[in-house]
Write a structure and sequence with these properties.
158 residues, GMP Synthetase, Chain A, domain 3, 3-stranded mixed sheet, flat
Length: 158
Amino acid sequence: MHKRRRKGKLESLGKLLKSVYPAPDQLEAARAFAWWSRSVPPRVLEHARPVKLFHGVLIVHVSSSVWANELHYLGEDLLQQIRKHVPDSGIEKLRFKVGPLPDLPKRARPAPPAPEPVRLAALPEELGRALSRIQDDDLRRTITDAATISLARTRKKP
């Protein structure tokens, strides 16, 4: 006998997350940390990462005192950006401190550079014939680009 599932109302992800996190400030800290990982320049992300949000102060560990000093001067701009993109975070101040950098979330790591495309002449003959039958110039160009990059990747693998 099959039981029918009860249909419930859709709930916002934010509401569900708030019910899972032990404290509301942790959710806001997670949002601020995510903003940092997505938004600061890669050069800064390599040397500075947030580690804690405590009483309105976002503690950011940096790799050296030089980075702490440089980010101190950029602090007001960074603070304004965080407030703009994560308005409920309650962050009032940034504090830069030399310390161990936490690992980056997987999606925050820069993507490896795409391999150099294979020359058009190096495409398989049957692919060239198929491409010539495509009437839409943009579509043909897109497929050609994808094919040349894909072939470059497969040729580099041992």
